[in-house]
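Milestone M4 deliverable, item 7.
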Amino acid sequence: MVHVNHIALVVSDVGRSLGFYTQVLGLEQTYRSDFDRYGGWVSAKNVDIHLIKGNPVVHGPDNLIVGHIALEVENVEDAKTKLQEDGISYRMNSTVPNPTIKNGVVNQIFVRDPDGYYIEFCECDSLHEYGKKLEEERRTIVSSFSRAVGIKEKFIEIIKRTKERTKCPNEIEDISPDFTPNHPVDETKLENLLKRRQVYGDIIQPIEEKELRKLLSFTMNDVPKLIQILKKRNSLAKEQILVPPTFIETDGRFLQPPVFKMPIS
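Output delivered:
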């Protein structure tokens, strides 16, 4: 593969969509072969968007966990002001790629095109910088670790621990209904687990603090075993509970989308 050439969107009215993508979003109309289809083209600089006449298939309005096109902007607040001036409704979401750091929040604004496709405005380049920083930190840790410990000995230790922590789910004992916590809870580990509740899709997300305390006490603060118990629960239930992020409407109202269950095999 060389690169992504274009994205195709099926729209009900090509002229109306062209007006939205050029006049509202500020993309540039381009001219390419339409093959045997009636449509139009706009350029998003690093990729083109092909608007093809047909029956659109779009996500509903329940939450912002949707397929979308993300447009990088220099300042999200400026983009929000421009949308307000143009009378364009939007929803704002806060993504938390790393809840453990103060600047680990990326604000996103979502608008819908005339057919209902979602378009995102974000300052996403900061995520690339954050990812690069993480990679550099990991390389430093691995390098230091390799110098301090013999690779062969550490490899044997890792294999041993992995076998202990990745037992078949049926071998992982769950908490009985009448279990009474009696082992002291590691508050630092609890705090770290609670931070994971901010991350959409994390297995910890729907678990309340009281239940996490019981699990930590039951496992004697063994977090990998705690995770295995939760995986076993999901496996037996054949589903995972997901809590979509809260978003903000144009009028400033905070909305919490409904929790939903996703089947797992």
